[in-house]
Design a protein that fits this description.
5-stranded antiparallel β-sheet; about 25% helix; 29 strands; elongated; alpha+beta
Length: about 625
């Protein structure tokens, strides 16, 4: 019996240990699904693509480009569940799909890092007028809610939902939106004063036509009087965006836990009535509340589902540089200097300030031309409110002048859609005057000092022979041991002199000195490359890589390292130096644009450089 129980305990422990060890492996897999809200639409209309990713650490999907389609992100929704210590997250990314022509299209399989891929989605675009196409159901799911008529202006105020004692209200500044438009929203959970309740999550959208920004985990708590009755109100402030054109109800749900009082089971008469009689101050309800038990009950609060009208972005008049920004914005630009040298980078800063969907505010700033060489800009956003509805987005770009003389930095434009005027707006900055002076070719990095190449030679100690006791009258100079020792000392002296002369000759050889210095510089630069890979320092890596190549080529061609330029490489290698020139070009892009380079790309460049050094 004891043996059987021991076996059962060991078996249970093994199962538990296996579950604990395998739990992380189960949690890392990301599942991805994709849905298109309609499989047939008319030219000039847009469809909504929803990509849902489930897993412990969902990553953003990779949307492949499709010829003839504009696929732009319009928002995302996320939720997190913790069950028995296991974290499960679900993120839904929403994209607006706008066709540029009619015909049949197929969105390829969409993948996600650390997960699987979706099935391709095929649909068709017809040349029918706007508003005459019929909606197709979502592939693999239920259709979107049927369009509803917009409420009148007199009924624009939010109303209570489903006649619940506790309810959820949505406060919006207007009832008509445009696809991609971002507006501030307030979500109010109202509980009657005295009701014991706790939140069991955050408000979530139940439809697919809207996207809600992230909600704060610490909402504002106030007390308000609604219809003459006091309520405890929990308010979340966020921003809401529309992702699908049409008339759709705005439905939100909030899971809460309320405490319900149960009647006490006394099993007899009221003991206070036996003492006080029928005029007892403690009636049955008071006694039941005192002796009763309170239990928690989960309920879900619903909004009133008011219908909002969502207008599509017009195709006619859309600027080529339109990135999906909807709102009201102003632009300005400034340069870091007013006088520059050809070949030296200038920092161009462009600021876009206003209100709207800043996640879709994008610009390429200044394009490359014969007079300017430009790099990809970096962007940062400074919100003016906690919801990210207003603020300033700054783009910093490195530009390099190629011509000398009085000049100006050309105007930079930015296009957006104004939902109030229902029109596209393009704003441009003012040209910036600047003086460009000619400059000399930039020299390569100086050769670092190396350790001493000549080593000191141990000098011979002076001869101090010890005179021992004489065993005979024979002179010491004629003794065999004396002759042999002096011969050995003379031979050693001659060999030492020869070695010293050979070392001095090697140390004074300019070719060997240059080769030794180049080898030391290459070793030091290679060490810096490896350190840069560990620290993911792209600028330091390409600087060290340039030094490795220039030092090795300078040694081979017997020229100073400062003369090793891209033009010199192309001329001496007869057009076979494309890979080395690509290394110089990539290094300039990383240095001027401050682009974050992945470790895998640095390792690949490390292998290419090693291959080039082997050929050299």
């Amino acid at each position: 019996m004891n043996t059987a129980k021991a076996f059962q305990r060991h078996l249970l422990a093994g199962v538990c240990a296996t579950s604990v060890l395998m739990a992380p492996a189960w949690a890392v897999t990301n599942q991805i699904t994709a849905q298109l809200d309609r499989l047939g639409l008319a030219l000039g209309e847009s469809a909504q693509l929803s990509v849902t990713i489930k897993g412990s650490q969902p990553a953003e999907p990779n949307i492949p480009p499709v010829d003839g389609l504009e696929i732009t992100p319009v928002g995302q929704q996320s939720s997190t569940q913790i069950i028995n210590g296991a974290v499960s997250a679900e993120v839904r990314y929403m994209y607006q799909v706008t066709p540029n022509r009619s015909g049949s299209f197929t969105i390829p399989a969409i993948g996600v890092p650390g997960g699987d891929t979706t099935q391709p989605i095929a649909f068709r675009v017809d040349k029918t007028p706007n508003g005459q196409n019929s909606r197709s159901p979502r592939p693999g799911g239920s259709p979107l809610p049927a369009p509803r008529v917009t409420r009148s202006e007199e009924d624009a105020a939010p109303t209570d939902a489903k006649d619940q004692p506790a309810f959820l209200r949505v406060v919006l500044p207007k009832q008509e939106l445009t696809v991609g438009e971002l507006v501030p929203v307030e979500l109010k959970a109202c509980f009657p004063a005295g009701m014991a309740a706790s939140l069991n999550g955050l408000p979530m959208l139940t439809g697919g036509a809207f996207a809600l920004n992230k909600l704060d985990d610490n909402p504002e708590q106030t007390r308000e009087v609604i219809d003459g009755r006091p309520y405890n109100v929990i308010t979340w402030s966020s921003a809401l965006s529309a992702v699908e054109a049409g008339d759709y109800p705005l439905n939100l749900e909030l899971p809460v836990m309320v405490r319900v009082q149960e009647k006490g089971k006394r099993g007899g008469r009221n003991p206070f009535k036996d003492f006080f009689g029928d005029e007892s101050p403690f009636d049955d309800s008071v006694v039941d509340d005192f002796f009763g038990q309170a239990t928690e009950k989960p309920i879900t609060l619903h909004s009133d589902g008011a219908a909002l009208k969502i207008r599509p972005l017009p195709v006619e008049g859309r600027p080529p540089d339109f990135s999906g920004a909807v709102g009201k914005f102003d632009v300005s630009a400034e340069a870091s200097v007013t006088r520059a040298v050809t070949g030296d980078p200038i920092n161009l800063k462009m600021k876009i300030t206003g209100q709207g969907n800043f996640d879709r505010v994008a610009t390429n700033c200044l394009a490359s031309s014969a007079a300017w060489k430009s790099y990809k800009p970096n962007a940062r956003f400074a919100p003016a409110d906690r919801d990210g509805f207003a603020g300033t987005k700054t783009f910093e770009q490195s530009i390099v002048p190629t011509r000398a003389g009085p000049s100006e930095i050309p105007a930079v434009s930015f296009s957006y859609f104004d939902p109030d005027t229902r029109s596209y707006v393009t704003k441009s900055t003012s040209p910036i005057p600047i003086e460009i002076v000619p400059g000399s070719a930039t020299a390569s990095s100086p050769v670092p000092t190396t350790a001493e190449t000549a080593r000191s030679i141990d000098r011979l100690a002076p001869d101090h022979p010890e005179i021992g006791r004489l065993s005979s009258l024979q002179p010491v100079v004629l003794a065999p041991w004396f002759l042999i020792s002096n011969a050995l000392m003379a031979a050693a002296t001659a060999i030492g002199l020869l070695i010293r002369c050979w070392r001095q000759r090697r140390a004074n050889d300019p070719e060997r000195v240059r080769a030794a210095a180049a080898n030391a510089a290459v070793r030091a630069a290679v060490f810096k490359m490896d350190e840069a890979i560990k620290n993911r320092d792209g600028v330091g890596f390409f600087h060290a890589a340039r030094q490795v190549v220039t030092e090795r080529l300078a040694e081979r061609w017997s020229v100073p390292a400062s003369r090793v330029t891209a033009a010199e490489i192309q001329a001496r290698l007869n057009g076979n130096g494309e890979k080395i020139c690509d290394l110089f070009k990539r290094g300039d892009e990383v240095a001027y644009s401050h682009e974050q380079v992945t470790a895998s790309e640095l390792v690949q460049w490390r292998a290419n450089i090693a291959q080039q050094l082997a050929h050299l």
